[in-house]
Amino acid sequence: MQGQVRIFYTDQCLFLSDHISMKKYFKYFLSSLISMIYFPLTAQIVNIEKERIKAHDSAGIEGQMNMSVQLNENKGLVFFSEINPHLQYKRAKHLLLFVGHWDYTYAAKKVLNHGAFAHLRYNYALFKRMKWEIFQQIQYNKIWNMPFRYLSGTGPRFKLLDWPKTKLYAGPLYMFEWQRVGADGSDLFTHRLSSYISWNTQYKDLFRFSGTFYYQPNWIDWRDTRFSTLIELQFKLNRQFSFDHRFTWIHDATGVVDIPLYTYRYTLGLGYRF
């Protein structure tokens, strides 16, 4: 039997401090740290490549479901819950991938965040190093003032490197975006290029380095663009302990009201396996 416990130190306290006074939040943070609780923020851009590079090569159906409920009372109630389903079907040249996420955060007698997304992606292998992709995604997020967002796209996916311990992929896809603006309830319809480059490299069990870069400009006005990156680095200290580094950066120049120009998050995690 194996288990894993992780303690995370992040810059997310800077975000929550906008909603809770620093004095109250320090009490929440201290008790949450002792209870090994942390609040993940759902980013507006879903890095689906992070899920796909973990996929196994075996045929058939594989999946996992992660669920958590965290409750903390320390001069104020803090409640967090999330569900993360992941399902994959692979056979011959076909690959079907579903990834979802739902989270709810309540503190200081108010809902800090309530968000979810569902992503469905289909791959068909045309050649050894080229696949064709079709994807659909639906999403909403309270923090980002995004009551509704729908994506649909298609395009090629190229395998640029296929070494035993290193994989490198790239893809230029067409994407249709339908987003409802929370400020005035208006709907925005945009045709975008959704291009990406992703990699995954691992050396024995000592370290793993993976990441994805996304570039999503408007086909009509390339100043209307979105750029994001997700980088993860994991070092294994010994058989039980490891350090995990995660960095997410999003630059959103789409001009949507109440969406910040850029956001970032750095996470340092200490892992223990028993």
Main features:
single chain, 274 residues, mainly beta, Porin, 13-stranded antiparallel sheet, 13 strands
Written account of the structure:
21% of the residues are buried. The chain has helices spanning 12-16, 22-34, 48-52, and strands at 4-10, 60-73, 77-91, 94-107, 110-127, 130-141, 146-162, 166-180, 187-203, 207-217, 225-236, 241-252, 262-273. Strand 7 (146-162) and strand 8 (166-180) form a beta hairpin. It has one domain: monomeric porin ompg (Porin, Beta Barrel). The protein is mainly β. It contains three helices and 13 strands. The longest helix is centred in the N-terminal third of the chain and has 13 residues, at 22-34. It has a 13-stranded antiparallel beta sheet with strand order 1-13-12-11-10-9-8-7-6-5-4-3-2. 8% of the residues lie in helices and 64% in strands.
Describe the structure in brief.
By secondary structure, the protein is mainly beta.
- Can you name the CATH architecture? Beta Barrel
Corresponding CATH superfamily? monomeric porin ompg
Mean pLDDT: 78
Q: Quaternary arrangement of the chains shown?
A: single chain
What Rg is obtained from the alpha carbons, in whole angstroms? Answer: 20 Å
Question: What's the CATH first level?
Answer: Mainly Beta
Shape: globular
Major sheet: size, sense and barrel closure? 13 strands, antiparallel
Distance between the termini: 8 Å
The residue ranges in which pLDDT falls below 50 over 5 or more consecutive positions are 1-44
SSE order: EHHHEEEEEEEEEEEE
Q: How many separate structural domains?
A: 1
Number of separate strands: 13
Please, how many helices?
3
CATH topology: Porin
Approximately what portion of the residues adopt beta-strand conformation?
Answer: over 45%
Helical percentage: under 10%
Order of adjacent strands in the largest pleated sheet:
1-13-12-11-10-9-8-7-6-5-4-3-2
Computed structural class:
mainly beta
